[in-house]
Structure formats: C-alpha cells, structure tokens
Amino acid sequence: GSGNLYISSENGFIRKVDPNGIITTFAGKRPENGGVVSDRAPAKQIVLTRPYGMIVDEANGFLYVADTGAHRVLRIDFQTQTAVVVAGSGTPGFNGDNQSALNASLSNPTLLGLDDQKNLIIVDSGNSRVRRVVFKAASNGLVQYSPASQDHSLLTRQADSTWVRSYRNGTQVF
User: Which residue ranges in the chain fall short of pLDDT 50?
Assistant: First the structure.
C-alpha cells in the first residue's frame, strides 16, 4: 500500500491511485457482474455494500474497510489480495462486546482507526459507539476462534490466512 491512495465509493468499489496517477479497481465487484457475497474472497471479486472508512496497516500489510451497508469490517491483504471479514456478523444490531468480533453485530460501521498495538478501532455509527477489536495471536502466529455452536470443533487461522476446522475425532476440514 505504500505510496498509493485508496478511495472508497458508495457504489461498491475501492479504487487505487498509484504514485504515477494510474487509477485501478483494488476491490469490489457488483453482484450482477458476478461478484461474490462471502466472508472470504479475492478482493476484486467480493461484493461491497457502501464501503466507507478505511485504514492502512503498513506494518502488517493490510487495508481495513468499513463495509457500511453490510454491517461488517473487512481486511484486505496487500500481498494475497484476499478480503476477509474481521468484525461483524452482517446482521445489523448491537451485541458481541467481549466476544468474538466475527459474531458481533455492528450497525453501519463508518470510520476506522488503529491503536498503538495495531488493534482495530471501529466507529459503530448506528449504535453511537466506538468499538475495538483486539487481535490476539498465539506465539506460533495462529489465531483461534471457538465456534458459536457446540460441535466441539476448533477453527484455526493459519499463518497463510487460510482456515482449518478440527473436530475432536481428528478430522480436519480445510
């Protein structure tokens, strides 16, 4: 992201202006043009619904995007060009404090920031709140979430940003 300017458009795109002034689509695709509605997809394929605020995390190589109309926040990896939801269930409302950010309900998140620990700050406009997502990683770099349902599985995010679900019987789903 160094030296580039990123512009969000309410019609579902994020444009990149490089240092030479060349404008390209960095993320977003309209559903009628084959865009994918997903929690994880290539950035140029994912459907964005009124993207608004953005923040660049230069240290980790990410662009965070408030997908305001979808009530969630995405993280786009500059190297892999993959968009992943990091906060918001997609259902508007207010819940989820002190729980997994993926299960939390946001209402029209608009502005984003990063604190000194690179945790994500979200202006949850519809709820008149400022919320923080704390990214905790084990020493091996993996981030784990316990599922909401009681299937006794463990969802683990690998260092390459892929996910693996492990069940008690040893079965793994990639």
Answer: 138-149
